[in-house]
Predict the structure.
Amino acid sequence: MKIFYPYPEEFTLNKAREIQTIHTCHALARQGCEVVLGAARRPGLNEHAILDYFRLAPHPNLKFVFLPRYLHFTWDVVISFQTLFLHRLREYVRDAQRENRIDLIYTRHLKVAEFCLKSRFRLPLVFESHEVFSLGQVDSPLKFRRLFDQEQFVYSRVNGLVTISDHLKDYLRQHFPLRAPVLRASDGVALDLFSAPENTQADPNLIIYTGSLYGWKGVDTVIKAMRYLPEKRLLILGGTPREIAKKQRLAASWKVSDRCVFRGYVSRAELIRTLRQAAIGVLPNHREEISERFTSPLKLFEYMAAGKIIVASDLPSIREILDEEVAWLCPPASPKSLAEAIRATDRDPEAVKRKTEAARARVHDFSWDRRARTVLSFLEGIVCDYAAASTPQARAA
């Protein structure tokens, strides 16, 4: 199967969606698909640099196409022209169609899905849904209407839909006119990257959080919990300088600054190395729609693969992966409850051993390769159905 995966952004090498996208495409290529990843061009960055950063070996089935979108005037002055990217995308797809180089378009970007559907490429399109955009932080009724109309258009016309959680799948079925088959496929992990060497000794007093610092991620909760954990230290990998400064002020106001270290975004190699040093991985998500029902956090699978003690908020989306057999779950947005769950791990070393081993066994169900096999089987069915519906007899009927 020949898949085109349009990704209308530059690879900045610090976003979770980049990790998810590159591993999805690479894993599909390893399953035998011919995959072309169409990303926005970034000066000085090529496919070898991207694969090397994410610690992935080049694969003959995975190709990159870089399409223009951004004009770089200086290092901090960049203008985006999404219309330019979409125009070049249309040219690429039409050329590839004429040469029989595409069987299916697969994307996780709503605007790209809408554009492809309106372009009438005569190709099946599968959309991978990670959230409901119209439920996000929409600052005006007009923007809400635009996003809702986009989602309704896409969900009513795609040939297939992949969601990263069962709760997201159920929500979309309840609120949008879905006509296509739907597959739930949680995010995954590169197991070989996160397994620790036998001689690695984790610091029992080091807690780690990796990822962005959006409010619903609950980083405020774990910072506040440090007041009740005087023997522990917290290491946070992720966040922009502005977000970090805000969290540092919070840590100062709770008098825990001396035990909270913020490193910002780090390379994948450093993240993997640092994750091995910590004993506890936290997932302190708050009770918001995206967090409660739609998320499938990459850090969760990485904690599991790395053998971390996992302390997480007790939310439906988290429970799709975790339960008391593999983690300590606690009420969201409660610093004292989070601190108590962390203290509970110190009191029961047998439970720590039992749960971390169970988590490492369970995470094998969530490797990128296993996910790719599931997705590929789904995509093959979509292509077959589309071909059957496109015959002269089917169109006449």
About this structure: The longest helix spans residues 368-389. The radius of gyration is 22 Å.
